[in-house]
Amino acid sequence: MNANTPNMKPGHRKSVLAKTTKYPVVIAGPCSAESEEQMLKTAFGLKKLQGVSIFRAGIWKPRTRLGSFQGVGTIGLEWLKTVKQETGLLTTCEVANASHVAEALKHGVDVLMIGAHTTVNAFLVQEIADSLRGVDVPVLVKNPVHLDLPLWAGAIERFYHSGIRDLGAIHRGFSTLDNAPYRNHPKWDQAIELKDMLPDVPMFCDPSHIAGKRSLLRPVSQRAVDLGYDGLMIEAHYNPAKALSDPQHQLMPQELGILLQVLNIDGIDA
Length: 270
Ligand code: PEP
Ligand code: MN
Known about the structure:
One of its GO terms (molecular function) is chorismate mutase activity. Its EC number is 5.4.99.5. Keywords: Coiled coil, Isomerase, Transferase. This is chorismate mutase. It is an enzyme of class 5 (isomerase). This protein is an alpha/beta fold. It has one domain (27-59, 70-262): Aldolase class I (TIM Barrel, Alpha-Beta Barrel), CATH 3.20.20.70. It has 10 helices and 8 strands. It has helices at residues 36-48, 75-87, 98-106, 116-119, 122-131, 149-161, 188-197, 207-211, 217-226, 253-262, and strands at 25-29, 52-56, 90-94, 111-114, 139-142, 167-171, 203-205, 231-235. The longest helix has 13 residues, at 36-48. It is globular. The chain starts with 24 loop residues before the first strand and ends in an 8-residue tail after the last helix. Bound molecules: phosphoenolpyruvate (PEP) and manganese (II) ion. The site of manganese (II) ion has 5 residues, from loops.
């Protein structure tokens, strides 16, 4: 442990977890914001599930190939604001540079997320962390695309060093040469190692991007709960077949409700 290692004492832990009363904290919403109608239909469906605390939507999408849907950009933040006003759900989106941060904060996004493709880039993480000096906002940091625990821990430490005390880690699996049957191999032992390295940082699981398919969401989510993760982030869309990104693993809100019900979780109220 060094001076930059997050070591918030439990009593000081003013985390996203503290803003929510449910266990585990469930973050849900579409992979991408596509239209105001899609956002509101999905959000009202999720609001009905008592277990969902935070609504997510990708505004800027890091895509591999040019020509893929790159996200709607700033207009999506207006829709996110409407979701918050209409449903009372907290909101989160991925930010991948300092101007995204400024836009997201201007639109009242409650929780910022650093995506796997950003965590890999220490310069970019530092630029984002610098832009957050003096700002009081929770930041959730996904693991980098490939297995590199120091890079993941280092990104979290950069935010801590910038004064962010409300931090969380999101385990979204690692791209390996042999991912099967997953989209990104969970390598649970590695995520547990990060938990051990940063015991005061709440750990979320992103079963959607680990699984890449609906059929694996339940076992992956159950494993995370069994391992004592603090929260789950699961992608949901009112009509997954029409989704502009990740149609293969998004759940309809009612399907997410069923998943939360069948998970063996003490205390969830879904
Ligand atoms: C996402 O959660 O929308 C996303 C892009 O995931 P990742 O950063 O894990 O690839
Ligand atoms: Mn997605």
